[in-house]
Design brief:
Layout (H helix, E strand, L loop, with lengths): L1 H11 L6 E4 L10 E15 L2 E13 L5 H15 L2 E4 L2 E13 L5 E13 L21
Parallel strand pairs: 1-2
Antiparallel strand pairs: 2-3, 3-6, 4-5, 5-6
Pfam family, one: Phage_tail_terminator_8
Amino acid sequence: MKEGLNALLQTRYPKTKYKYYSMAVVEGYDRPCFFTQIRPIDASPVNYNTRHHQVVFYITILQKQVDEEEMLRMIQEVQDLFGLNVKIEKKSLNVTDFDWQYAGTDRNVPEISIGLEWLEKIVHEVNEPLVERVITEKEMEE
């Protein structure tokens, strides 16, 4: 899923101009770049056949040089890119929340958080043999 979300970002911010890193990278990165991370919030069953998933996708943007106007434009572009629904592989993810704040020691690094949720079919394996024939009898009461 993270690969699909990053691919969506790359439609607007190509890898030829921007680098993409996981949160595990702490040094040796090139700017401008994006750090992305997925944090699970919930994966609970709704019923016997369906599971509800909820995650937050974090995007941290590091510019080559701090430019507030460009930063605000990029945040808006990311919000427009994700919209209300995102299709990743065969899943349709609802965008339930879009928020951002400044991080970093100088509070000039935007960190975007995007809430995503979807329903997933729970596959049950049937190991019992199938019933091939059923005989029923019905008696009438007098």
